[in-house]
Amino acid sequence: MAEEIFCKVVNVILKCKDCEDRRASIRLTVETRSASNPVHKKDLIVRLTDDTDPFFLYNLTISEEDFQSLKCQQGLLVEFSSFPQRFIDLLEQCILEQTKEVPRFLLQLEASSSVLDRLPASLNVIETNPFKHLTHLSLKLLPGNDSDVKKYLAICLKSLKTEKHMLEEKLHRTEDDLSKRLSITQQTLAEKTKELDGLRNEWSSHASLLTNRHTQDVTAEREKSLQIQSQCQIKYEQQKREMEMAHSRAVQHLESRVAELESTNKELTERKYKSDSAIRELKAKLTGLEEDYHRAKQEVISLRRENSTLDSECHEKEKLLNQLRTRTAVLEHEVKDKEQVVTRTTDEFETAKEHKKKLEESVEHKQLLIGNFEATVKSLSEELLKANEIIKKLQGDMKKLMEKMKLKNAVTMQQEKLLTEKEQMLQKETLELDNLKRALEQKEDEASKLQEQLDSTAQKLDESKQLLKTNENVISWLNKQLNENKIASVQGTAGFCDSAMPGSISSKPSVMQNSLVRFSPLSMNSATPSASEPRPGPSTSTPMIPHTSDKNDAPGLDMKYLQKSIPLKAQKGHNPYNAVPTRALLSNQVKPQTLSAYFPGQQSKLPAS
Q1: I need a labelling partner for 499 at 20 to 30 A (CA). Which of 25, 76, 161, 520 fits?
Q2: What pLDDT, in 10s, does the model give residues 525-584?
């Protein structure tokens, strides 16, 4: 049972002997596989693939025994149970650092010059610093043979087919939903357009009637208001003349009164100037007193300084006379308290004296002012009596005028009421018009939104159709590539075997039936051997491992892609990398085995597809 733990695209530095270093984005998958037959075992599978190149495949299967040797070789401090998570943490660090200019953690894949040698490639996790490049972990990965590549491609094809089916189902669903929505929106659009046409007709007829009525009423009211305005203007001009005459008389009387008040004002200003001069004299006295106060303050400060010097002398003498110190301290405290009491009482006494003097002066000044004010009040009261009599006469005239004005106001009020009623009617009609306009705008907005939804759904339909077309083209292209590779490999091996070993085909027909398919793009690009060479054998093709395969072994591919071809062996001395031991591909119940990278003599299990 295989469980995928990590599957991400990582930037890897590819190192070859004959070519320059280059960066490539390679998909790295980490899986754990547990098998309970015959003994419960847990294996770690590391796979390197390239999304752009489907034939790029490197596998590594680490069992518990392999991990123990790896631990001893590289000095690891981690157990097999926690090794996958620590390895994933290192990969995550590499992914985080790959965007930086000088990454701290790097992934490096060291491989031989050609993939056909089937030499193990080492995947190194390197930490860089200015002093040294430290390799934290180095894993040896085997390049995938034809059977491994076939299985990987079959899995990719299967996943693409499932994705295609899912997309087709989604497309059908979206088409059904969109067609239903389109029909509903078209029906609602037709209904709304009918309602709009009806409302427009009603609104136009109603507006024309209202405008006609309004123009007739306005013309009639304008004529009436002009007549009333001309009559009112004549009456107001007569009243204005009478009021101007009365006003001129009142003004003459008030001017005489103002002259009298100005004379009284002059007398009061003279008194004010006298009082200001008295205030200035008092201020001068106050400044003299303040100067005396400051002098007294300075004397007090000098006396305090002298006291401080005397205190220092007393402190020196106190060292010799400890008994007298206590008595002098008590006496000093008492003296200070009494001095404070004396100063407070003297200050309060002086302030009370000054306050008493100020009050006496203010009383005398106010008595003089009261006498002056009483004389002015008597003269003003006589004038007020005269003015009251004049005002009473004017009030009688005003009452008569007010009665006339009330009659005119009653007439104007009635006219204003009629005007307000008509204005209210106009406002109601304008409100109805505004409401109709808003309803029209809302319906137009709804129609525009529905059109936008239709456009977006049409765009989504086009995009999904294009996606389907691209997926179908990719699948057809993959099928063509597979068929072409199969045909080319079969033709190449058949022609080569006829020229090199004519006797072997006639003597061993069973080998033709049990041999593997050469399912590699390298067979097309490989150079054909010349007729003059004594040793026939493909110079660039990978040596195949002959094995018997069951019919249920490749569930993703059709059986036509798994036709058999004859593997060839070199006539020279036996090379451990050219001659690979045979191994049987088991059914789904028994797992296939691969060569271990760390123990070339032993066999380890292939990753479950």
Answers
A1: 520
A2: 433 333 333 444 434 333 343 344 343 444 444 544 444 444 444 444 444 334 333 333
